[in-house]
Amino acid sequence: MSTRRGGAIDPAGFLDYTGQQYVIYKQNSDSQGLGDTGYYGPCALPSSSPLMIQEVSPTDGVTLVGSPVEMLAPDVVNAIPIRAPSMTRVASASAESGWLYVLFFTSGCEQDGSLAVSYAMSAHGVLGGGRRYERAAGSLLRTGDNNKTLWCPGSATVQLDAQKMLWNSNLNGTDGTRQVFAGEISIDAAAMTVSI
């Protein structure tokens, strides 16, 4: 991945139905003093680091194919950084390729309790067809969910079958003890929504 603009962090692999392989990652512009300092630091500055996707060779999984594509930009108006991508797909009669691509990511900061699992979708192919992924209006998981036991959920990983998800969260407050949780998800391709 590129070493320009701070390099690349939080890589996740994605195998498409075509057999093409991709790496999704955060372009780490923030490490250049251009935005948030990460999960645990202050989030006073808007983040300028987008989530990117790069096709790689299906033969070795590392040789780059083409150029990286920006999938999702951070919410710079509200100073909300994004990171830790994971992606899946579901069949969709209304999507251009017949597949709806669902990108899960962590947004917000742990320090102020805003860390959450959010998602965005593309009905225009894995690379977005020249468009960024469409961000959902709300978060999938946030502080206070699960009968008020979750505090700052993040780093979700979804299975390719689009039915199960793992994520981590502090349990019952801010003591710093992060635990792994598992849950079943449901993706409604027609409504372009996800529930857990």
Task: Describe it.
This protein is globular. About 4% of the residues have low confidence. The protein is mainly beta. The chain is built from 1 helix and 13 strands, in the order ββββββββαβββββ. The longest helix has 4 residues. Strands 1-2-3-4 form a 4-stranded antiparallel sheet, with no helix packed on it. A 4-stranded antiparallel sheet has the order 5-6-7-8, with no helix packed on it. A 3-stranded antiparallel sheet has the order 9-10-11.
Topology:
Blueprint: E1 8-15, E2 21-27, E3 51-56, E4 64-72, E5 82-91, E6 99-107, E7 116-122, E8 134-135, H1 145-148, E9 150-158, E10 164-171, E11 178-184, E12 186-188, E13 193-195
Antiparallel strand pairs: 1-2, 2-3, 3-4, 5-6, 6-7, 7-8, 9-10, 10-11, 12-13
Quickly describe the structure.
This protein has 196 residues and is an all-beta fold.
| SSE-based structural type | mainly beta
Biggest sheet statistics: 4 strands, antiparallel
Number of strands: 13
Label the overall shape: globular
Number of helices: 1
Question: From the alpha-carbon coordinates, what is the Rg to the nearest angstrom?
Answer: 16 Å
- Percent helix, as a range, is under 10%
Task: Walk across the major sheet and give the strand order.
Answer: 1-2-3-4
Roughly what fraction of the amino acids lie in strands? 35-45%
Name the poorly predicted regions: 34-41
Succession of helices and strands: EEEEEEEEHEEEEE
pLDDT average, as an integer?
85
Question: Cα distance, first to last residue?
Answer: 33 Å
